[in-house]
Specification:
The structure holds 2 protein chains of 2 kinds. Chain A is an alpha/beta fold. Helix content of chain A is 32%, strand content 18%. Chain A has a 6-stranded mixed beta sheet, covered by helices on one side. The longest helix of chain A has 19 residues, at 41-59. Chain B has a 5-stranded mixed beta sheet with strand order 4-3-2-5-6, covered by helices on one side. At the A-B interface, helix 3, strand 1, strand 2, helix 5 and strand 7 of A face helix 1, strand 1 and helix 3 of B.
Chain lengths: 163, 148
C-alpha cells in the first residue's frame, strides 16, 4: 500500500525525466525507473550559475574598466596605485594621440585639454596616459607641454603592477 | 481512441551544451589585466617665482643608452655634487641606481623632491621604471621634465 505523498509527487513531476540523462529512445523498458544511471543535471546547472555569477562579480569589481590595445605593452611598476575614480584617458599609439578614443592632432592637444579642464568637476583635473613601454620619450613630450599649458597637473601613467 | 499524452519534457541538454561552450569561449578569449597608475604632479603654466627658495631636489637624467646622471640641487650643504650610474649590458643598471638612491636618501634625509629628465630617444618604459625606483626610495614628489 502506497501511502507516502512524496512518491505520488515524484510520479507526477514532469521534470523528473529531464533531471536524468536518458538514451534518447522514447520507449522505456520496464526497468527504466530502476536504472537511473544519471548525471544529475540540477547540480550541473548549479555549477554553471555559480561560474556565471563569479564571472559577473569578478569583472565588475569597482574601479574603472578600460580597454588596452592588443599590441600595447604597458610598463611595469612595483609602486603603483589602483584606479579608483573615472579619469579621462589619453592613449598614444604610434605617434597618434587619442583622447577618450577620439583622435586628437598634436597642435590641438592644448585646446582639447583646456576644454577637459573646464568641464572637470574636481579641483585638480587628472589625466591617465596609456602608452607602450617601447615608445620614445619625445612622443610624450608634446603632451606634457600641452597639459602644463592647459593646467592639468595630475598625470596618471597607466602601468601593470608587478606586486 | 485516446489522445497521446502531452509531452512536458524540456530538453535542456542542448542549452547546457551551448552554455558550456559559451563559458569556455569567454574564459579562453578574455584577458583580464589589472591596471594601476603611477601618479605625478606636474608644474603648470609658469610656476616660477623669482627669489623663492626651492626645496632640495634630485635631478635624474636618463639617456637613451641607459646611462643615468644624478645631480643634487638646492641643498644647504656646499659639498654637494653629482653622481653617475653607468649602463649595464641590458640598459639601465637598475640595481646600482637603487643602491645610489637609497644611499642619497640616507645621506640627505631632507631630500624629498625629484625630477626625471629623459632624453628624446629614451624609452618610456625606462622613464616609468626610474620614477618607480624613486617612489620606492620614498621620494614624495616625483616630477617629469619636458625636453629642452
Amino acid at each position: 500500500m502506497k501511502t507516502s505523498f512524496v512518491q505520488t509527487l515524484q510520479r507526477r513531476s514532469p521534470l523528473k525525466d529531464t533531471q536524468n540523462l536518458s538514451g534518447g529512445s522514447k520507449k522505456k523498458s520496464l526497468f527504466s525507473r530502476d536504472l537511473a544511471m544519471a548525471l544529475p543535471l540540477t547540480s550541473l546547472i548549479d555549477a554553471f550559475s555559480i561560474i556565471v555569477i563569479y564571472l559577473l562579480v569578478g569583472t565588475q569589481s569597482g574601479g574603472m574598466e578600460t580597454q588596452i590595445p592588443n599590441k600595447m605593452n604597458l610598463p611595469l611598476a612595483d609602486h603603483s596605485i589602483g584606479i579608483i575614480e573615472e579619469t579621462p584617458i589619453l592613449k598614444i599609439e604610434k605617434g597618434v594621440y587619442y583622447l577618450d578614443d577620439k583622435i586628437v592632432r598634436k597642435n590641438e592637444l592644448s585646446e582639447k585639454l583646456s576644454e577637459l579642464k573646464k568641464s572637470s568637476v574636481q579641483k585638480t583635473a587628472a589625466l591617465m596616459i596609456q602608452a607602450d613601454q617601447e615608445m620614445n620619450y619625445e612622443e610624450l613630450d608634446p603632451l606634457l607641454r600641452a597639459s602644463s599649458e592647459a593646467g592639468i597637473e595630475k598625470m596618471k601613467f597607466a602601468v601593470v603592477p608587478t606586486k | 481512441m485516446k489522445n497521446k499524452e502531452l509531452n512536458f519534457e524540456i530538453n535542456i541538454l542542448p542549452i547546457l551544451d551551448i552554455l558550456s561552450v559559451l563559458i569556455c569561449f569567454l574564459l579562453l578569449t578574455a584577458v583580464w589585466i589589472q591596471v594601476g597608475t603611477l601618479d605625478t604632479m606636474q608644474a603648470i603654466g609658469d610656476n616660477s617665482t623669482e627669489g623663492a627658495k626651492n626645496p632640495p631636489s634630485l635631478w635624474v637624467t636618463v639617456e637613451a643608452n641607459g646611462d643615468v646622471q644624478l645631480s643634487l640641487r638646492d641643498l644647504p650643504k656646499s659639498q654637494v655634487s653629482g653622481d653617475e650610474v653607468i649602463k649595464s649590458s641590458r640598459g639601465v643598471n637598475w640595481a646600482a641606481l637603487e643602491k645610489k638612491l637609497t644611499s642619497l636618501r640616507v645621506q640627505f634625509p631632507e631630500l624629498k623632491t625629484s625630477v626625471v629628465r629623459p632624453g628624446a630617444k629614451t624609452a618610456y618604459g625606462d622613464v616609468i621604471r626610474v620614477m618607480d625606483k624613486l617612489k620606492q626610495s620614498e621620494f614624495e614628489g616625483v616630477g617629469l621634465s619636458p625636453l629642452g
